[in-house]
Write a structure and sequence with these properties.
It is a single chain. The protein is of the alpha+beta class. It has one domain. It has one helix and four strands, in the order αββββ. The longest helix is centred in the N-terminal third of the chain and has 17 residues.
Length: 73
């Protein structure tokens, strides 16, 4: 592969990550939102939950899943 092709794939990956938003999937009675996220211990990045994703896209470490409570907007 050429350098231009690799740069294109890297830019596409960054755009895809920027579009990915942590979505709240449940609202508590007090108005707080609950979301399930995947996070990497190594690089501390968080991603929206995706059942097929097993490894961090940037450092290739195993992702962990946790439930976050988001504050009211």
């Amino acid at each position: 592969m050429s350098i231009e092709t690799l740069q294109y794939y890297e830019q596409e990956r960054k755009r895809r990550e920027a579009r990915e938003v942590i979505e709240a999937h449940h609202r508590m009675p007090d108005g707080k939102l609950i979301a399930t996220v995947q996070f990497c211990f190594n690089c501390r990045r968080q991603f929206a939950y995706n059942r097929k994703r097993r490894h961090c896209p940037s450092c290739q470490q195993i992702l962990r899943t946790k439930t976050m409570i988001l504050r009211k907007p």
